[in-house]
Amino acid sequence: MTEGTTSAAAEGADTLTRLEQEGEIAADYLEGLLDIADLDGDIDMDVEADRASVSIISDAGGRDLQKLVGRDGEVLEALQELTRLAVHRETGDRSRLMLDIAGYRAQKRSELSELGAKAAAEAKSSGEAVKLKPMTPFERKVVHDAVKAAGLRSESEGEEPQRFVVVLPA
């Protein structure tokens, strides 16, 4: 390799290293937060779908961690944004880090995938567009992916925070 050029493999390794660094920064930030809040939790880091992913899990059933999820994941969304800001402060780069606490997002992803598949089946059988209730960007992305996997198209309509998914018939 000559100076000034990079191979695809080296670029991929650089991205992985950058995402791993984001995960490390996020984990340190969240460990400090858990200490301040006097909450117990283990932090798990991963890289999935070209973004850093950090999860806080609990051995004790996660009741205490539910405080960090909040109603409908509102506190989780806020903590994710704060964690992304902490990463940005350290790296200077905008982060797309995904945070999960006590398995909330994993459970939500499963429910939303099912909702997307059902809406796709309904659009196929009725031949009409199916409009879903307003959702967060994370929720809409999961539904869009499920609809695509079912072989249909979907789009988002409306303005935040009332933006929603419309599943289009074939």
UniProtKB/TrEMBL annotation:
Gene3D superfamilies: 3.30.300.20, R3H-like domain. Transmembrane segments: none annotated. InterPro entries: Jag_KH (IPR038008), KH_dom-like_a/b (IPR015946), KhpB (IPR039247), R3H_dom (IPR001374), R3H_dom_sf (IPR036867), R3H_KhpB (IPR034079). PROSITE patterns: R3H. It comes from the Bacteria. Pfam families: R3H. Residues 106-170 form the R3H domain. GO terms for molecular function: RNA binding. This is SpoIIIJ-associated protein. SMART domains: R3H.
